[in-house]
Write a structure and sequence with these properties.
109 residues; rod-shaped; mainly alpha; 92% helix
Length: 109
Amino acid sequence: MSTDDRILRLEKALATLAELSADHNRRVARLEEAFATLVELAHNHDERMDKLREAQTESEQKIAALANAQIRTEDALKQLAESQAHTDRRLDALIDIVRGERNGQSPGG
């Protein structure tokens, strides 16, 4: 093989190597872009998770406050029912007095 043939082969091999190197560089650039996108997505995911945790904590606090309000409401309703029963008893007594007066009985005897 002549020197010129060898030089031609080397030039072709060098051109092929340059193409392969350029292709490799393009692939590395795409991988770098993909990695940057993944890093950004991970960062966004972390931010969203933080917001979700905050919202969950806030919801739990609101639920606890609502449960406490429900307990207070139940207590108030119980007291109201007791007061209503007392009022009913007093009203019944008053009705008995009024009925007695209508039937000719005086309150004093």
